[in-house]
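Figure 6 in text form: structure in, sequence out.
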């Protein structure tokens, strides 16, 4: 658990926070074995749920946990190895592969690609670089290799993208709630690259 986390489990959070006022969940189950997850969306890691929804479109299953407080959304952060919302875990049961979208507080414009699916990790790094983005293997806090990380709960593991604040700022008019309603061409290119990585599916089959 991150030392900054206020809550250690989803049940603890749900006892203290109000759904529909402090947080909300966006869940769509579709006929697919791929789940896109943004467990720190809304005002927690700003821009991640918008990216996840655009990526999932009406094709992939999706789970977003979104902080909607006026201020203080960081208090809703539960680290990925302890994120245990039953509705999220139920959706993950339908998945062969999970792609988790996160944001990190780094000003450089880059993506750190982690997770236990090494083949898919390398595919995303290659495609992101070909698309004009700085992309690196995730290490340390960005590695996403713990078996209890929500991206790794199914099959042979999934992929975690840690998108820096600097890059997310280029994807929207701003990172405020109003600013995130207006995306830029960088957002469109980024989502397109991610969708290509999923649609190719080489490295996913057999998991």
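Output sequence:
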């Amino acid at each position: 658990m991150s030392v900054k986390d206020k809550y250690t489990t989803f049940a603890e959070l749900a006892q203290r926070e109000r759904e529909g006022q402090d947080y909300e969940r966006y869940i769509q189950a579709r006929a697919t074995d791929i789940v896109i997850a943004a467990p720190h969306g809304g005002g927690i890691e700003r821009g991640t749920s918008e990216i996840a929804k655009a990526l999932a479109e009406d094709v992939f299953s999706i789970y977003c946990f979104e902080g909607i407080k006026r201020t203080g959304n960081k208090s809703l952060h539960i680290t990925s190895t302890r994120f245990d919302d039953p509705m999220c875990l139920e959706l993950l049961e339908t998945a062969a592969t999970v792609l988790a979208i996160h944001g990190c507080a780094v000003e450089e414009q880059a993506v750190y690609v982690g997770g236990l699916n090494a083949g898919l990790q390398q595919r995303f790094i290659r495609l992101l670089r070909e698309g004009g983005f700085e992309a690196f293997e995730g290490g340390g806090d960005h590695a996403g290799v713990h078996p209890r990380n929500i991206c790794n709960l199914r099959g042979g593991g999934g992929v975690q993208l840690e998108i820096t604040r600097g890059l997310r700022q280029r994807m929207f008019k701003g990172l405020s709630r109003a600013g995130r309603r207006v995306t830029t061409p960088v957002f469109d290119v980024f989502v397109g690259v991610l969708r290509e990585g999923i649609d190719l599916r080489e490295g996913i089959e057999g998991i």
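Caption detail: The chain is about 30% helix and 20% strand.
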